[in-house]
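Progress against Task 2.4 (sequence-to-structure conversion) is shown through the following example record, which the project officer requested during the mid-term review.
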Amino acid sequence: MGEKSLLYHLARASFLLEVNTMTNPDLILRKQLLIEQSRNVSFNLLNLNCWPLWNKVANRILSEQQGELQPEQRFDLHRIMAQQLIEDLWQVSQIKSSKNPSFVELRLTWVGQRINGRTSALAIQRLVIEITVLETENGGIEISAWWEISKLGRLLRFGRRLARAIVSQIFDDLVNHGTIEYQQVSENA
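Structure tokens generated for the chain above:
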């Protein structure tokens, strides 16, 4: 792809400013894990090839790149529900990591949802989740989420519930299935 437009960069800068000015997350989920479990979560979270193994909702992952997640990478989680293809669209906004203390932080932006190719879940205007894994004694996982719900979603009272369900599902899957050490998944598979 060619150079990105000025409009793209302005929108991106505006979005980052909005995320940084959001002081209190709408939802925070935490769980203390053993050091080895935290390491497994970090590896499984950053390796897109492992997502179908721990993410029990996504039957398939679609992305232009496999293996380790990269900033600005787009990926889609596909599942079949009631004989309909549901696609959750995500973009990696930021990845941070450190060795001392050992941690990984991944910020994902929800781009939207499609059902059978049609845009869906319009109750959520914006959803940003930040997953932090601390790989030390008394460490563990924390997910913070910020969202903006449309007027219709607030009026019908389902936008907040939907955003919570998306974040909680990722948290539950990471805590229950992401702590397992999966064999290195080949990037050519």
